[in-house]
Amino acid sequence: MVPLSYYLLLSGILFVCGVLGFLIKRNIITIFMSIELMLNGVNLSFVAFAAHWHALSGQVFVFFVMVVAAAEAAVGLAIIIAVYRTRETLNVDQVNLLKL
Amino acid sequence: MTPNPYLWLVPILPLAGAAINGFFGRRSSKKAISTVALVFCGAAFAMALFLAAGFSSASAPYYLDLAHWIRSGNFQVDFSFYLDQLSLVMLLVVTGVGFLIHIYSVGYMWDDDGYYRFMSYLNLFMFFMLTLVLAKNYLVMFIGWEGVGLASYLLIGFWFTKDSAAAAGKKAFIVNRIGDFGFLIALFLMIKHFGSLDFTRVFAAVQPLSPETAGAGLLTAIGLLLMVGAAGKSAQIPLYVWLPDAMEGPTPVSALIHAATMVTAGVYMVARSSAIFERAPMAMMVVAIIGTLTALFAATIGIAQTDIKKVLAYSTVSQLGYMFMACGVGAFSAGIFHLMTHAFFKGLLFLAAGSVIHGVGGEQDMRKMGGLRVYMPWTFATMGIATLAIAGIPPLAGFWSKDEILWKAFNASWVYWLIGVITAFITSFYMFRLMYMTFGGEYRGGAAQDAHGHDAHGHDDHSHGHGHGEPHESPWVMLGPLVVLAVLSVFGGWVAGYNNHFEQFLAPVFQGASDVAQEASPEAGKSTLEYLLMVVSVGVAGLGWLLAYLLYSRRPELPARIAASLGGLYQAVSNKYYIDELYAVLFVKPLVDGSTTILWHGVDQGIIDATVNDSADAARHVSDRARHMQSGNLRSYAGWIAAGAAVVIAYMVWMGVR
Known about the structure:
- Chain A has 100 residues and is mostly helical.
- In chain A, 78% of the residues lie in helices and 0% in strands.
- Chain A has one domain: Orthogonal Bundle (Helix Hairpins).
- Chain A is built from 3 helices and no strands.
- The longest helix of chain A has 31 residues, at 57-87.
- The mean pLDDT of chain A is 90.
- In chain B, helix 5 (138-156) packs antiparallel against helix 10, helix 10 (251-260) runs antiparallel to helix 15 and helix 15 runs antiparallel to helix 20 (476-491).
């Protein structure tokens, strides 16, 4: 059996990759994918704990997260397409009209 | 002592006048302003006469406790007034001469833009001066003392747009402050050792102390400190320097404040404190020496001045020296007597000088005057009387008082007398010099503009003179006071006359004093010696006149040659012995430099400003750095959140939080 710490380590690596991608990348789609990566890193730790403690609530949480992420992906992608149509760019630094 | 409910009216009336003119004068007509000023000042004079009417040398002093002021344990000071023979003399001089000068000012200042301001200040001065004179304790006296200083400052700097006038006002105020410092410390000593500032209680506490007992050191200290105050206010060495500069003020101010009344406040204060001085022989001697030296010193400077008002200013300093000489040898009543006659003839001299300045269109340099007796006969006549009076020609006022002082001084020491007589000679000389330069010869104004100077020009010459045209006599509103003062200058001395009436009148005030020092005073009629001394002093006065006549009337070219042959000495006298420059180097410059380098650059900029500025700078630098966090860039915020989370997690991991 794979020990819990391995799962948690992988989960942490995935999450950090997501954070770094979110902070460094300029492309909206990449940022969007980084967010998904963070969510899934967390999901991994949830299911790992659930398996370790034999508790179902962690797995239920993961489903909730996946539902919300799916909804978010639908809305987010729609927004990205709308942005691309109006601004013809996906670089977030050029989509800063609302910034003071 | 008799309570008298009217005393407070005397000072308060001019204050009301000052307030009315000060608040509403700007919008009032000049007639209304004059009426207010004259009515309130005249009412004070009338009150003074009313009070004087029921007062004789045998009367007990009047007093009035108007209100409580300070009540602290055993120590108490009230707003209370006091009128005895000494105050009464001062009261009559101040209100009488003051009223005349108010009338004169109406004519003199009529065309000035600040007319209402001037009249208001004059009334304000009267209020403070009367407070000073009528005070029942040293603290109320000090109110008046400071107040007249304020009024003096305001009036010297009346034409404040002129740099020299503003500077002269400041100089007078600051020099007076030095004297006030001594006065204040004397008051503190009195509070500490006598527990009171009330005249009667202080003098009662002083009474048992004799010069031989242990209290003498204290009395000497108080006496010397009071003298410091008096030297500031009454322009004695070493604090006399402000008075000549004070001539920047309008001439009525010079007459009222800087000749007749305010500058004599120091003499009054010393005479008032006679009980203290009599028991401090050292302090008395210092007073006498300062007075004598000032009399001589100022008189010599007066010889070489060419500004008509400056001559009179130095003359005032010199005459004040006489008064202090008298007080210093214990002849307080003689000092007060001279104070009174001096108020008449010096007030008259200044007013006449003002009339001259008015008549020749603002010129003050005597070298550009001359021949004015033809144009201004009334001014000439009155000023001539005043000159005779100040020179000590009998039977005019100045003769009686000056002779009294010289006689008393002779009884103390022949040195005082000798210097006094020399001063009398110089006084006579410079006063007649002033007369000959101003009224004698031919008119030199206007004509002096074309290169020929004053020789060979006739009277019709000044028709093409520039500016004001011919010199003209002043209006009657100005001449009236001159005539009244001239009459007083002639007859004012007769009150003392042969029978020492004046001294007897003041005797109750100086009773305590005369017990100690005056027992040897020769009251038993006039001895041959006194007549001899009288002849000598009249003789030197005549001699001074003669010399002035020879030099300035018969041989007008001679003085310049004498001046040239004297060289450096003449330069020194003409430049007032460089005393101002000396003070500038000794006191002003170190003070200014010290203030600039240590206090300004060092303490103020280096410590106080630096503390504030540096803390502000530090805050700004920190903020400058911190500002970058608030960039508005969403991802940098996210970065901070991530970093913060990392820190928290690291903390939890390493510190083992469960």
